[in-house]
Automatic annotation (TrEMBL):
InterPro entries: LEA_2, NDR1-like. GO terms for biological process: defense response to other organism. The chain crosses the membrane at residues 46-72. It comes from Gossypium tomentosum. Keywords: Membrane, Transmembrane, Transmembrane helix. It comes from the Eukaryota. It is a single-pass membrane protein. GO terms for cellular component: plasma membrane. This is Late embryogenesis abundant protein LEA-2 subgroup domain-containing protein. Its main location: membrane. Residues 104-189 form the Late embryogenesis abundant protein LEA-2 subgroup domain. It is found in: Membrane.
Amino acid sequence: MPMFLIKRITMGNPSLITTLLLTLAKNLSPATIKSSVVQEPNGAYVVYVVVVAVFYYLFCLVGAMAFFILYYNPQKPNYDVKEFAVKSFNLNDNTLETDFKVSVEADNPNDKISILYEKGSMFDVSYQGTRICSGSGPEFLQPTKNVTMLNISLEGKNDLNSNVKDSFIENQKNGKIPLDIHIYVPIKFALENSKSKIIDVMMKCYIEVDSLKRDKKSKILNKICHYKVNF
């Protein structure tokens, strides 16, 4: 701005000089000068710090996992269908009413880990793809190094088509009745004062029994079971 204009403005408004001087002093304060000369952190240094932090985190994580495996030695539980009993079996016309009891052996081989059986388990028996009965298992805490027999009651009332009904009757006469057993059980590993997330146990068994007579324990002629534990 030309000097004569500044002189004219300041003479007309004396306080303007004070305002201009204060503004100039603020812009030239030590903090402003310091901030203008400080450089931004080097990009390579920032990357180095991030990489070191990530490797440190991974090292701690791997160390914790190694300690857990070596100390607790976790092993998956084992399951097997041991018995199949018939409480009631009524086939009238095309309606089938059943009440079975399936005994499943649950083996916890761990010596430092208990197993908590949560609610929401599902057991069902089907014949030629048709579910004929279902039930659920108990909620309980299985201690270490323990084998528990789960006695599951399965009930159902279903309408069968004529082909399935005729096949059922024929299998009864021959003394070889094929059945599929499906099992789903949610469990948690209990470690002292902590628990794991939900672990899904799924099992499928194909069995062949000699009869389905009321109040009789069926003889299991053949059995093929597969199960998996989803950690």
